[in-house]
Each structure stands twice: as C-alpha cells, then as structure tokens.
Amino acid sequence: MAKPGRQKSRTWDHFRPVSGTSRMRCTRCSTEVTARRDRMQKHWDGCVVQGPRESEHSLIAKPGDRRDGDPRWNQPGRKRTATWRHFKDSPDHKGKARCDKCGYELSARVDRMKKHLIVCRPELGIEIESAAKDVKPEPSPREPEQQTPQNGLERANGRRLTESDVRALNRTLGRLILRHNIHIDLLDDPELKNLWQGMVYVPPSRQSWMSVIEDLWRMEKSKSETFVRRSRRLTLVTDACREPKTPHFASFIAVNENGESVMWDMSPVSADVTVENVGEGLKMRLNRLRQLDKVIAVTTDGGIMMNSVRRALEKDPAYEGVIFGHCLVQQTRKMAKDLLIAGGDLWTKLKTVERICSQIVASSEAQEFLRTFEGYKEVEMQGVNASEWNSVLYCLIRITQNRPALKTLVRRGLSMGIGFEEKEAIADEDFWLAVEGIMPVARVFCFLQGLSESCELTSGCVAFGFYWIRRIVQASKNFTDVLRESMTEAIEERIRLALGMEAYVSWYLDPRLRGAGMKDRDVHKTCVAASDMAVRLGIFGDEDVENWKDNLFLEWHDYKDGKGSFDLSSCWSPAVTRKPERYFHKFETFH
C-alpha cells in the first residue's frame, strides 16, 4: 500500500489556477499571485484583514451606480471607488489612470487621483485628509471673517508660502530659463504658467528675474571655469540647448586652442525680430559674459541685419575686440548646432540633415552648380547612392550661394587635386593611387580642409562633409582593407578637430553603448578605451578620468534599466562623482 502524500494546505481552497500560467487567482479580490503556499497565505491574510474594515458608507461603487452601463463598473472582483468615475484605465501603461477631463496620466492610486481632481476639477469639492488639516476653519456666522492680506504668496489649499519657498521657486524657474534658453519676455507664456498652476503666485519683476538669472549664471560659470582649467585643448563647455523655446539665445561657449573663451550666439532672423532687439539680446548675454576673450555672433542672415548689429555693438566700448561670423541659411545653423552638441544622437540628426540636403540638391538653384561635379559621379562605388554623394556637396552648394568669390574658390579648390597634409607622412604609393581612384572625394576633402583652416566654413559643416566622405570611403571598391583603414583614420582626425574632442568622444561612444545585447564586461571595456582616448586627446587629466569613467558606466546602466535617456553630456563634469560605491559594486568582478 502506497504511503499517503503530504496533506494539502487549506490555503489552496481560496485560490483558483490561472490557465496557461503557474499562478493562482484569489477568489475574493481576483488578484493573481505565485502558486506557492507562503505567497498565497501572505496575500490571503492581508485580503481577509482588509475586507471587514470597509463600511457600508464608504465610497465603494456597486454595479448599477452608473446608469450609462459603463463596463468599468460591471467588472468582476473588487469594486472601484467613486473616484474612478472621473478616470479611465490608460490603454498604453499598465497601472496608470487617465483623467477624463484633461487626459493627464498618473498612478492608479486613489490618493493620487484625488490630489489631481483637487486641481483639475475644483468644482467637485474633493478633500483629502492631509490637505484638510492645513485648511483654516470657516468663521462662524456670529464672528466677522478676518481679512487675510492677499500678497500673491498663498497656495490654493491655504498654506502660506514662506520667503524661502518663493526664493526656491524663483531659482527653479530661473534654472528652467537658463536650461532651455527661454527669452525673459516670454514668462507670461501659458506653458510656463502651468508650472505654478494651483498656486496664487505672482512672478518677480523683470529686474528681479535678471538678478535671479545673474546668480544662477554665476554659479554655472564657476562650474565651467573649474572644468576649463582642467582642459588643455579645444573643449565645448556649456550650455547648448537642444530644443530652445525661442531661438534668440541658442548659444554655446567653447575654449579654443589658445585657451581663449569663445561664445557663439546663433540667432536666426525672423519677421518679428528687429535690429534693435537683436542687438539688445546680444548685449544682454554679453553683459553676463564680459570675462570672455572673444564673442562670435552667428546669425542666419549675412547681410544688412548682421552689419546693423555690428554697428550697434561697436558703439559701446565694452565690446571692443568682438569678432562676428555668419552663416547663410537656417539649415546650416541647425546642422552646425546639432552636430556640435556633445552627447546627442548624431545618427538620427544626420539622417534628418541628409533628407534636407537631398531636397536642396534637387532644387533648381543648385543645378547650375552641380554641373561642375557631373564628371565625378561616375566613380564606381558599392552601396553609395546618388543622394549620399549629393549630401557631400551640400556644404559647397550652400556656402557659395550668392557669393561669387567663394564660388570661384570652390572651382579652384576642385582643380587643385589631392594636396593632403598627410601625403608626406604616408609613403605608401598604393594609398595615393587608391585616393586618385576616388578623386572627387579627395578633392572635396582637400577643399573642406582648406576652408576649415581659413574659417570660411563652420566646423559643423566641415564635420558633416567629413562624415559622408568617410561613408563613401568605406563603401568604395577601390580600397583594400588596410588602405581603407588608413584613410578612415585621417578623416576621423579631421572630424575630431572640427567637432571638438568632447563631442568626438561622445560621437565615438554613442553607437557603441547603444548597441543591443552588450554585456557589462563589453561596456566596461568600451568605457576604459574611451577614458584612455579622453586622456590621449587632452580632455581630462589622469586625476579626473577615473571619475568620468565611473559616471559613464553608471549612465549606461541607468539607460539599460530604463532610468534615463543616455545623455553622455551628464558624464563630462569630473567634479561630480555619482555614488562610487554603486559603481564598484557593479563591476568589481571585471578587475
């Protein structure tokens, strides 16, 4: 006779198996738990305790409460509170609720939903316990109501804002203005007003805002100066905006090879911008940047507007020595700005620029200029279509438009042949024969190199041209693997000089760290290689590179875990060490 098995616990009687899974469903609240006795017992103890505590006067909705027969109120299992009358389940995110009035999504918790309804639908008169404690009781009919002075510093729930609260709020908004380059005149914008929704808050005056922003700028400047002192060559320092609210202050600061601080202010000209307020806008930024050695004001208009701004600033002796440059079209400005931002997704941006380039090259205004290149399109290339080749010519077409002198220079440059500086250093004749096999690439490379050295072309345009030249070189049949590698190294050197070293390292790392399926060990090796490159290129000294490597590794881990957007620019500050104990815990097994 077989020995009877272990008696099954009664806990299993309160659960039903879920078909197709190894989970059990509670018969009381329909919650699914793992099919283990301890897990089910723990759930059942909590489920049984919570049940009797609900009184018949609670906000538990019942089927039939809604006459419209909403299926949300007829689902089996535990009934939802009346707060759910104003929300629906989010179709995109599990565990989220969507407000029926404004469409805002939030956590599907009753307390969170009630707090949202207090702001979104005040006519419902919903109160929560924590807010009710702070609300002042209404005066009795016999006692006259005491008049509280309204100075614009009270919350909607009655709690008075202290002076420290006001200062903190001002600094928060000031950081928002600096981070997104919001024009100070746009503080009445509806999007900004949403920041203090539910608060009777009066923003400071223009003078107060200027003082707040001055303080914040001084703090950012001190951080940047610390970073600049530790750099030895061309370095992008601060604060290029990715998507500015207004384009008037899209700027960044760089330190050139001579150690001079340089500000580029890329201010596009639109119909609602006059000479006066463009000049005043530049003056306002220059007042905060008098410590800079050079200021390069870049506008999308190369004619009267730039000259007017130049004359307006030259009248002020404080701006002696200001150097002005300009680029001709808004696409060029956007391309240069996108390429020069460290940590951006260059591949996505380059595809967008490629589409713009193809449209420009196909336009009628470019046909006459393209006749110069008709003989060069017959080069045998594998995997390079006409649009990619035309993208290389985009810079040449745009910078010569309406500029006969530059057009002559272009034609002269195309007839110069190779002329690489590396020709003397590279003695391999086969290398140069292969280069002559793709003569148009060599000539365009030579021309872009010459323009970059004479400051006739923005560094973003140069880097963009070099990028596509590298694509063509790698796809050409005329190169062996060794020669292609040598040519690619020479081109990447030009990209590095054009973009600046920080942006180059980010541009180098971005596709590698975003690669799917990379293991921690591979990522650690990549970070070590990048840190060696950063030391070799002069971005960091030996004492700072370890912190930067730690930050880089943690940034990738946060991105992999879904906690961040993988912004490499957050790793560039060597003064900030992001919890080193976390770092060593994650990769101590790699040493």
From TrEMBL:
The record ties this protein, via Pfam families, to: zf-BED
Give the Gene Ontology MF terms in alphabetical order: DNA binding; zinc ion binding
Instruction: Describe the location of the BED-type domain by residue ranges.
Output: 78-117
Report the GO terms under cellular component.
Answer: nucleus
Q: Which UniProt keywords apply?
A: Metal-binding, Nucleus, Transcription, Transcription regulation, Zinc, Zinc-finger
- Spans of biased composition, class Basic and acidic residues? 54-71, 131-145
**Annotated region described as Disordered, given as residue ranges:** 54-78, 131-163
Q: Where in the cell is it found?
A: Nucleus
Q: What is this protein called?
A: BED-type domain-containing protein
